[in-house]
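QA checklist item 7 of 12: single-chain prediction sanity check.
[x] sequence parsed
[x] length recorded as 373
[x] structure emitted
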Amino acid sequence: MAVCALLLICSAVALRSQRRVSNQDIRIRTEGVFNLLLSKPPGPAGVERLRASAGIETVAAVWRAPVEGDLVKLAVVPSGAKAEVLAGYNFVSPEYFPLLRIPVLRGRLFTAAEAKEGDGVVVISDATARRYWPGEDPLGKSIAIPSKRQADGRSDRLPPYGAARVIGVVGDVISGFAAVGVDASCLYFPTFAGAERETLLVSAARGKSAGRRDIQAAFDQIAPGLVDQINPLDEIHEMMIYPFRIAFWIAGFLGGLAILLTVSGIHGVLSYLVSQRTKEIGIRMAVGAGSGAVVRMVVSQCMLLVSIGGATGAALALLAAPLFANLVQAIQPYDLTAYLGAMLVIAAASLGASLRPAQRAVAVDPLSALRCD
């Protein structure tokens, strides 16, 4: 019973976590948006020709494409603060926000001139504004970038200036891989489409299949062989949460196995106990015990097993919870609903498994039971 409770609680926690990740609103548009992997930069002229092509709505540039992984971190010092803080950051073109339908909450976005000239400006997410300047207007504040040596080890790129002025605040989006946690805080530094180190995001007007053909046809005219891959953003997102779908099937199997073990185990144990107590049950019924009292006796034995084993399994699950929390941040190992739901399922399955032995106990003939002696 303890092992079954442990399996079912772990399954319930994994299933609820998978559901949260699958239903998570990442707050950006993914349908009809494509991430292009190019063999070489198309240059500003190539980007302009792409924008003018049939079926193409918007073209934007980004250093690290959304939904592909958690943001790299940069050590910065917000104005008014003394200590350095780590912040996720990215380089995006002005078209990035309208393409992904990220709303501008305050201020403005970069201009094309600011993006091309590398002016020291930054757009921040609303979560960043609340974190750095709670209760204050962030517009006009500055963010200092004190040292290049403080860059994230995964990053090979930093802003080319030592400080940036906040010119706008945009809505929070989920920038990260769900399995390692998500963070809505982000600093957006300006870049432009056609720059050497940027990835292109393209929104197409005619849906996924037709949009892919439109993009490929446009590049066949601009520079044949330039496009290596055309990946729909919604498919990239699905791929990133695919491990949780696998966890769903594994957790479902473990949950089903736990219920099967619970039912078969309880049925076997109670059937054995009833057979061992045939004489006792016969005596009870011979001296006037009703069928209800016999059923309560059998069911109470079942519930005692459920209580002791379930409590032990829950305690084991609580002990194992920190391990799950350290491995996958998206899992909430202390999910009260998952624990209670698993225990209710075990109790219901055990109660159902005790019915057949209880029926056998009620059917005992007192005279036959006493004659066995």
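[x] summary fact logged: The CA atoms of residues 40 and 343 lie 57 Å apart.
[ ] second reviewer sign-off
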